Protein: Lipoprotein
Organism: Dictyobacter formicarum
Amino acid sequence: MPKLQYKALLILCFFLLSACGNQGPSSPALPPEGYLSTSQSPNGNFASYIQYTEHNGQWVGNIQEAVLPSVDNPSVSTGKVTFTGVHNGNSISLTITDINAPISNISGTLTGTFSESTITLNLSESDGSIKSFVYKGASINQYNQAISNLKKLAQKADEKYREQTAVTQANNTMNTDIGTLSGDEATLKSISFDSDLQALSQDNQTIQQDYQQEQTDANTSCTGVGAGQVQVDYAQVQVGISQMQTDVNTTRSDKAQYEKESKAVQDDKNTIKNDWVQLQQAVKNNSYKDPKPLYTQSDVDSFIQGAQTILDNAAKNWNNARGAGNTYLAQANSTAKSAYILSTHCQP
């Protein structure tokens, strides 16, 4: 190859290489749309987003925040503050100018540091200490996603609260109704017909004695003064019948109380059965397995059987009392009838 041609080829290659390698200065990276700080912990969850514009070191912007105070308070609250600020080197100072809704502890003048990708703000805590919050460059979409995550967390916390509260309420309801059953059982067991039967027995005995006296007086004399005494004796039998009727009414009152309390215990039994169904369902629906049910199937069976035993004993007591009472009444009525017939035979 001629020497001139070789030199021209080298020059061409030099220019080609220069053109390929020289791309010019690179474009500066665009600043982020904002700066995001998030936290998820048992003590609180939040997403905080800073946006601003700058002119000659002067900032104007806002801080938006969504807060979920705790899983025990499953409600996301939002707020926004505006600020003016000064940017000097790596340092920033922000002065809150307007609070549209209270958020965290952002108020007054805040200090911190700034870089192209990070903002750090120093905030005063309720105990007087200062805590640094780091904000990383993030898009609006990333902030919206952080809010969406908070809402999902709130929804899950709300589900947990509802499920656990249902078990707690079912436990409390059973506690209350078992207490009611215990009180009604005690009242039913306290009902006794012994005094009623004793009164009826005494009434019947008095009537029998008065009739025996009437018979004795009639055998002595059934005319004149003797007949008058027979009438007096018969009147005493009627007094005894009247007293027996009073005691019968007392027995009927005690019977009404027995029936009322028996129904109460029976209703309590049914209520506890229903409570147990509700508690089992609440426990089944509670995916967190806490709190635990305070009662077992064995406990409930024991309550139901105990109540039924008390009902059976109360019914037995009433049936025995009714049988004895009817016997006294039958004897008294038969005697009263005989006393009446005898009195009609002995007229003054």
